[in-house]
Please model this.
Amino acid sequence: MQAQQASPEQVTDAVQQMNRAMRLANSALEFSVDQDTDRVVVTMTDRDTGEVVRQYPSEEALALSRYLDSISQGALLSQKA
Model:
């Protein structure tokens, strides 16, 4: 049996609910969705300084994903031309 994939709206709603829960728990974790890759991003910040301590996936991994997407889209456009 295959699991049904969540819609972008469902993912955004779930992310917002997790962020509310983390704020209530006084946690320094924040959840977001990267608009270019549609990947969930988890960020841990230092409460005193606001500095990002950890992020998953990292900015480098997101940048690589964006780059690979742009290459694959470019290749697709070249094949159609």
User: Anything to note?
Assistant: The chain has a mean pLDDT of 81. DSSP finds two helices and three strands in the chain. The longest strand covers residues 40-45.
